[in-house]
Here is the input.
Amino acid sequence: MFTGLYYHRLEAKGRLAIPNSFREELASGGVITWGLDGCLFLFPNSYWQKFSEKLASLPLTNQAARNLTRLLVQSAVDLNLDSQGRTLIPEYLRNQAKLKKQVVVAGSLTRIEIWDQEAYHQHLDLIAQTINEGDTLSSLDI
Here is the structure.
């Protein structure tokens, strides 16, 4: 399970250090892909396999399912950590998430989210405003 929040710098070559606390769960590998809400997703291989099977089981006739599959699968790249725990984020994914120099690497239970730092804080402000208005919590059954 991925929890916590880390601030990192994206290197000029597009490499990003993955926090030590996340690396153990990524020992068997992972997949970086297009995320939702303006971030990238980093899934451990174990979850990506289950998630891929769910995507594959969606009806081919459902346009939303086809579109989600395209976004996530066609942009996916294998995680490749070097000896210092860094991985290369391909340029097309850096561009998609508008990653600049300062990034946030955040645990989100089953996945890691990689955000541009400014975009992350703007998104959190929006979430906080929505929650304060009470719109989203009433629909959750937790």
